[in-house]
Amino acid sequence: MAMIHKEISDFTVQAYLNNEFKTVTKEDILGKWSVFFFYPADFTFVCPTELEDLANKYEEFKEIGCEIYSVSCDTHFVHKAWHDASERIQKIQYPMLADPTHALAKDFEVYIEESGVAERGSFIVNSQGQIVAYEVIAGNVGRNADELLRRVQASQFVAEHGDEVCPAKWQPGADTLKPSLDLVGQL
Fold first, then answer.
1. 117: helix, coil or strand?
2. How far is 187 from 58, CA to CA, in rounded Å?
3. Is 166 a residue of the active site?
4. Residue 61 and residue 153: Cα distance in Å, rounded?
5. How many other CB atoms are found less than 10 A from the CB of residue 41?
6. Helix, strand, coil tally for the chain in percent (to 5)
7. Which of 47, 86, 158, 167 could form a disulfide with 39 if both were Cys (CB 3.0 to 4.6 A apart)?
8. Run of H or E including 35
9. DSSP state of 7
10. From the CB of residue 58, how many other CB atoms can be counted at a distance below 10 Å?
11. What distance lies between CA 35 and its chain's CA centroid?
């Protein structure tokens, strides 16, 4: 599953956002950075903790020009029902994409055929619609919005400064590295 630099396919899906249903397409994501945050299903256990964590960091993602798209194989109607029923989900201000046909889950290679749901996959997509970073983990382990934000920031930095790289635990403003023969084996 080598997804780095893969351009995501054209798509058109329904979304729930701010008490409305709206259509989201690939065209909508081009020109800005995006995170596609796949999770198994609405009305589950770990998922609301992750989506709330993202909701709490959403302003920071927006400040760096990155949109969040949570995605499950549920319908937009189920997203609305979950939003109405859960205090955690009511905090969400980012689009909740519905993928009942599994088109997105299959394109991002996180669809679990035997259960009809998506794995927990986080995909950072650049402004050209290409995947530049991703993580897929087992359904019983939640993710961390702080680390995802840091990875988006690092991905944006290296996209802008192609001759520099970000070392482990890099944070915005910290030192980066300029790859050279002198650094090989020295760090």
1. strand
2. 35
3. no
4. 9
5. 17
6. 30, 25, 40
7. 47
8. strand 33-38
9. B
10. 19
11. 3
DSSP state of 179: -
CA distance 90 to 111: 26
Instruction: Identify the CA nearest to 104 among candidates 2, 13, 3.
Output: 13
pLDDT in tens, the chain (187 residues): 589 999 999 999 999 999 999 999 999 999 999 999 999 999 999 999 999 999 999 999 999 999 999 999 999 999 999 999 999 999 999 999 999 999 999 999 999 999 999 999 999 999 999 999 999 998 889 999 999 999 999 999 999 988 888 878 889 988 877 765 555 555 5
Tell me the sheet residues that pair with 86: none
- Cβ neighbours of residue 83 closer than 8 Å, sequence gap 6 or more: 16, 89, 90, 92, 96
Place of tokens 């008490």: 19
3-state class of 9 per DSSP? coil
Half-sphere exposure of 149 (CA within 13 A, CB side): 17
Q: Give Cα separations from 4 to 98, 133, 174, 181 (angstroms).
A: 24, 6, 25, 25
pTM beyond 0.85: yes
Q: Is the dihedral of CA 3, 5, 62, 27 positive or negative?
A: negative
DSSP symbol at 33: E
What is the amino acid identity at position 173?
G
